[in-house]
Write a structure and sequence with these properties.
By secondary structure, the chain is of the alpha+beta class. The protein is built from 7 helices and 5 strands; from the N terminus they run βαβαβαββαααα. It has one domain: 2-Layer Sandwich (TATA-Binding Protein), CATH 3.30.310.70. A hairpin with a 2-residue loop joins β4 and β5. It is globular.
Length: about 180
């Protein structure tokens, strides 16, 4: 298990991991906030976790060519676990995949993936690079679709019939006929 401790907040870890993955030829495919998946009565007190699913295609291809069973472990997942005053970034070591599949000869291929995951976790644990903080984030590039937070936004259509909020505003019914 690879583990790194940081004092960064959970919200900062996401941005840091996205930038680190991009710098190393990967992307963040999904973000799952584990604490929000549990019903209120089952939530963990004093602990929270966000799981990031990362994809590094150039590092996965050699592993999959060596043994297609590596697909059971890919894409890679990094958990950011909030415990007490700190955050622990954790992932399963890709070298452990080789042990589980009884393929020790493939371990050198898994080592490059492990090194990349460790680097991404270390970069995310140190926060945003100075140029990203000064330049307002991602520099000249606009945000991509997966970097836009759509929580609490108002949908354009409010029902299965395609009704817009603007059509119902103020009257409670559709705009008057005629025209």
């Amino acid at each position: 298990m690879l583990q790194i401790h940081t004092t960064q907040g959970l919200d900062q870890i996401e941005v840091g991991l996205r930038l680190a993955a991009e710098r190393h030829g990967g992307t963040v495919l999904a973000v799952s906030h584990i604490g929000q998946l549990l019903p209120a009565e089952l939530r963990l007190k004093g602990a929270d976790a966000i799981v990031f699913t990362l994809c590094f295609p150039s590092l996965y291809a050699p592993l999959l060519r060596a043994d297609i069973r590596f697909a059971a472990f890919l894409p890679s997942r990094i958990a950011a676990c909030a415990v007490g005053n700190g955050i622990f970034l954790e992932t399963i070591s890709p070298r452990e995949y080789c042990r589980l599949l009884h393929r020790p000869e493939v371990e050198p291929l898994a080592a490059s993936l492990e090194d990349t995951l460790r680097l991404a976790m270390e970069e995310a644990s140190h926060g945003l690079p100075r140029e990203a903080r000064a330049g307002g984030g991602l520099g000249d590039r606009p945000a991509t679709e997966d970097q836009v937070n759509m929580r609490a936004t108002l949908p354009q259509r409010i029902d299965c019939h395609g009704t817009k909020v603007e059509e119902l505003a103020g009257t409670g019914v559709l705009d008057s006929p005629g025209g």
